[in-house]
Design a protein that fits this description.
Strand order of the largest sheet: 1-2-3-5-4
Helix content: 25-40%
Number of helices: 4
Distance between the termini: 32 Å
Shape: globular
Oligomer: single chain
Number of domains: 1
Structural class: alpha+beta
Number of strands: 5
Bound molecules: adenosine monophosphate, zinc ion
CATH superfamily: HIT-like
CATH architecture: 2-Layer Sandwich
CATH topology: HIT family, subunit A
Largest sheet: 5 strands, antiparallel
């Protein structure tokens, strides 16, 4: 399979590895959007969150606080964002990954999501809840 992250796990492409266990691999994102920007990936190749089983999610997400705390202690960021891009055009590497992005004063990134507080009715919120729950 022509997957750059599978090749990184296999050691065919070099990476700055920070963590590895039986199921999970973590390494520095090559772009270093902020200092310490790290990617956590499952060793098993899956495209994105829609293919993630509960068991795989357990394995991968349990590593998130471990690495987040290491980044906090190592680099003293003001906070950290945990991001996962899924599907084109958001996703550019089609092997599921979680970005850990330590945040710093004036790091050039947005602080948060768009704030639409107060723009929507209670009915609208109820419709959203219904639409989601029907599909769980
Ligand atoms: P995205 O799929 O948009 O969530 O992002 C994929 C991420 O993988 C980008 O932030 C890239 O910088 C990163 N990336 C791509 N190739 C490599 C590589 N060889 N080593 C480390 N990071 C990589
Ligand atoms: Zn892969």
């Amino acid at each position: 399979m022509d997957c750059i992250f599978c090749k990184i796990i296999e050691g065919k492409i070099p990476s700055y590895k920070v963590y590895e266990d039986e199921n999970v691999f973590a390494f520095l994102d090559i772009t270093q959007g902020t200092k310490g920007h790290t990617l956590i990936i499952p060793k098993e190749h899956i495209k994105n969150v829609y293919d993630l089983t509960e068991g795989m999610a357990e394995n991968i997400f349990k590593v998130v606080p471990k690495i987040a705390k290491a980044l906090k202690t190592a680099f003293n960021p003001i906070g950290i964002n945990i991001i996962s891009n899924n599907e084109k055009p958001l996703q550019s590497v089609f092997h599921f990954h979680i970005h850990l992005v330590p945040r710093y004063e004036n790091d050039g990134m947005e602080l948060s999501t768009v704030n639409n507080y107060g723009k929507f009715s209670e009915e609208y919120f109820m419709t959203l809840v219904k639409d989601i729950k029907e599909n769980l």
